[in-house]
């Protein structure tokens, strides 16, 4: 007998329908064959399925079993085909029938099986749930631990199970099952952050620069001696970012679901990602890749922050792979088996010391580095990568009187209110096509960056004196537009250009 069960395969951040065809034949020697370009994890499902069926108090057919995962030319990976394969075998062998009205022809089935027949948490469920909706499937059958994740997608009935035996009882009509009820999603409410700007003494200029970066999605480099507060400022930065919208949360959750980093029993990633890879990270770990291509740190930081502490300590060849993603907000990974594109719309937040010892230019402690050491240290970061950073900021050591004062600084909540207002202005301006000023194209800059005559005059002088590249010129305009938005100004004024240029000042390397 022949049976068909529908499942899905994750390709990048999207999913495509996979038909699990099972043929149980009484002719020929008992054998278990699987075809359809399956990887090792799928091949090993034969043993998991065999044990799960037997431990669920049903008989594993002692016949020739042929399983085809169609389309045959599409690579299949992962253990989430266990449940559809098991159901296909039981249906084809006549041990279960669709008596309870669950139309398996209108359902997508996904789930990894344990040897005892229980269903385990399975990664990559959200893209498959979105596939179910777009392909017209009415139901999706998932492990209970994935129910909240699948229920995020409206219009698809989620049937969540704890074990294979429970699935069989429901199909046979021996047990009732209530579809999983979607929980209310309260994005941005009652967010708690470990670090707050009120905890940081002094550093008013740094806080202002971070506010501008958060409002427009601009990249920023913090430079200063050890102990000045660079890492503390970076850790507090997520607390002034606006909450994720539902659409953004879906984008981020898809990435984390594919990567297997979504917490079990959680429906969505509700806070903006903050990724802080160690400087020993490889270029594959940073941009993604591997035999089975997975998203890297820059994609895991999508719609959030990628914090690179001790920037010059990263190998230069690792930093160089950031050039294109920082500019294009996406990364395409090509391998012999094909290519995949992952989103990478993140704020690059980097920190570094001014020299190897960290005290170059410090007024209280002398630098012990030789000129050659300093030059070599600075050359670890290429000019083209630095040109893609919008804000360069010196973070000096905090003065004693500010460090010991008992007064509270401005809280992250107060700063976030201004950031939210500026973000709403940008959303209205671009009609939701893009979300921040940092994403503007040259055409957008021409249309939305109207400058007064005084501002244009100082900008012309700055292009020559600062030796700005075309990219640097456009980044100054984007930065000025953000500062104007924070000031609630329709046009870019002289003071907005002046502040933006101040953030572009840096020592030549």
How many distinct folded domains?
Answer: 3
Task: Give the strand tally.
Answer: 18
- Ranges where pLDDT stays below 50 over 5 or more residues in a row are none
Share of helix, binned: 25-40%
Reported by name, the CATH topology of the largest domain is Rossmann fold
Q: Which second-level CATH architecture of the largest domain applies?
A: 3-Layer(aba) Sandwich
Q: In angstroms, what separates the terminal alpha carbons?
A: 72 Å
Descriptive terms for the model:
509 residues; alpha/beta; Ribosomal Protein S5, domain 2; Rossmann fold; Helicase, Ruva Protein, domain 3; 3 domains; 5-stranded parallel β-sheet; 21 helices; elongated
Give a quick summary of the entry.
With 509 residues, the chain is an alpha/beta fold. 37% of the residues lie in helices and 17% in strands. It has 3 domains: 2-171, Ribosomal Protein S5, domain 2 (2-Layer Sandwich); 197-431, 3-Layer(aba) Sandwich (Rossmann fold), CATH 3.40.50.300; 440-509, Helicase, Ruva Protein, domain 3.
């Amino acid at each position: 007998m022949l049976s068909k069960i529908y499942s899905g395969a994750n390709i990048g951040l999207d999913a495509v329908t996979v038909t699990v065809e099972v043929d149980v034949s009484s002719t020929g020697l008992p054998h278990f064959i699987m075809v359809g370009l399956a990887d090792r994890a799928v091949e090993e499902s034969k043993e998991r399925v065999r044990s799960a069926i037997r431990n669920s108090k049903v008989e594993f057919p002692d016949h020739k079993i042929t399983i085809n995962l169609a389309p045959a030319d599409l690579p299949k990976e992962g253990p989430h085909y266990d449940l559809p394969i098991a159901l296909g075998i039981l249906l084809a062998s006549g041990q279960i029938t669709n008596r309870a009205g669950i139309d398996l022809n209108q359902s997508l089935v996904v789930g990894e099986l344990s040897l005892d027949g229980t269903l385990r948490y399975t990664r990559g469920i959200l893209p498959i749930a979105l596939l179910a909706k777009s392909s017209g499937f009415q139901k999706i059958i998932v492990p209970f631990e994935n129910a909240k994740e699948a229920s995020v997608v409206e219009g698809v009935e989620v049937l969540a199970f704890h074990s294979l035996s429970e699935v069989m009882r429901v199909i046979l009509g021996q047990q009732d099952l209530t579809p999983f009820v979607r929980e209310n999603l309260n994005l941005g409410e009652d967010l708690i952050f470990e670090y707050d700007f009120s905890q940081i003494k002094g550093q008013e200029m740094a806080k202002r620069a971070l506010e501008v970066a958060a409002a427009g999605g601009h990249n920023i480099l913090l430079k200063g001696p050890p102990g000045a507060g660079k890492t503390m400022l970076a850790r507090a930065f997520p607390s002034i970012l606006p909450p994720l919208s539902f659409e953004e949360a879906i984008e981020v959750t898809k990435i984390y679901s594919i990567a297997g980093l979504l917490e079990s029993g959680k429906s969505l990633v509700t806070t903006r990602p903050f990724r802080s890879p160690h400087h020993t990270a490889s270029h594959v770990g940073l941009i993604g890749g591997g035999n089975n291509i997975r998203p890297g740190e820059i994609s895991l930081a999508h719609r959030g922050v990628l914090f690179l502490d001790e920037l010059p300590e990263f190998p230069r060849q690792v930093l160089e792979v950031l050039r294109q993603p920082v500019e294009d907000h996406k990364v395409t990974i090509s391998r012999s088996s094909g290519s995949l594109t992952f989103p990478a719309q993140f704020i690059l937040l980097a920190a570094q010391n001014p020299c190897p010892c960290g005290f170059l230019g410090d007024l209280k402690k002398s630098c012990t580095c030789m000129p050659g050491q300093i030059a070599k240290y600075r050359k670890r970061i290429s000019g083209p990568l630095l040109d893609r950073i919008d804000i360069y900021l010196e973070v000096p050591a905090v003065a004693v009187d500010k460090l010991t004062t008992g007064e509270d600084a401005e809280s992250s909540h107060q700063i976030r209110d201004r950031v939210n207002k500026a973000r709403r202005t940008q959303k209205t301006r671009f009609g939701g096509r893009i979300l921040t000023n940092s994403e503007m194209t040259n055409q957008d800059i021409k249309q939305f960056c109207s400058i007064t005559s005084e501002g244009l005059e100082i900008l012309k002088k700055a292009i020559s004196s600062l030796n700005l590249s075309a990219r640097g010129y456009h980044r100054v305009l984007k930065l000025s537009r953000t500062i104007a938005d924070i000031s609630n100004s329709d046009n870019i004024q002289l003071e907005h250009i002046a502040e933006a240029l101040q953030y572009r000042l840096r020592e030549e390397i």
